[in-house]
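U., I forgot to send this yesterday:
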Amino acid sequence: RKTSSEEYRQAYKEICENGLGKATILRDKGDSETGHHITVMIPVKFGGSEAVDWILCVQRQMERLNFYRKSYVRHVASAAAVIAVMVFFAFGTYLRHFLILPVQKIAGEAKRFADEHTKPESPLGENIASKNEIGQLARIVDAMEIQILSYVDDITKITQEREQIKAELNIASEIQLSMLPREFPDRKEFEIYASMTPAKEVGGDFYDFFFVDDNHIALVMADVSGKGVPAALFMAISKALIRTRTQMGGNPSEILADVNILLCERNDADLFVTVWLGILEISSGHVIASNAGHEYPAIYRPGEGYTLYRTKQSPAVATIEGMRFRESDFVL
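Result:
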């Protein structure tokens, strides 16, 4: 082929020398008439030889190709924009259906539960059946509501029970205080006063004073081990036994010995009571007393002040079965 372009001649030569190979592409600015163009050279053979028989040249003007290219780019861009809008719309629909709406349902249920404190008409887990984190959150909220309602029910029951127990303890406290003597028959020979303030609603401390006969009065100060209801019950039993046994007669040591036997018989709670028991002969002021592990009494005399009346003590009542108790005496 005859050609005026050295570049073309060189391309033809390389194709003929190298034989069959890849296509050769040449770009040429051309002239004012032809304009920019591009040439593609492809070797062609006939028969089984490797020699090049023909060279097929295809030449296209760049202006035309650019037109097609721009048109293609516009079509691709338009299609990409449409696809992007569709993807965005689909993604927005997905987010709304699988994320936004479930989260709104969870938030709405949380607000409703905070305002009403009641079970929902249908659990969130049924309305949000997805197995992702949102579905797990919905089921956790359902479980939390059930636990909170159960906890509130338990607290309500416990509070009611405590209020009932408190009311019963208040009644028990009134009964216990009513068991203690407050007033005494008008006697000119002596005056006697006493008071007690329990640490709790009921307790184990108690005192008592009562006539054994017209000339003898018994004085009791005692304290049961422990606090609360068990001590209060043991106190009531101890007080009744001491009063009953004292009115039967005898010295304080004998009285405490008999009471000790009775309290030791069925003392499964292992409680005990410290007791100071004194019997005062009103006509003479002579006192016979027995101290079973209790504090020393204090005696006040004009000009001398308070003096502890110290004597040998015996163990507390209800600690050792068959125990003998010591006695002492003094004059008021």
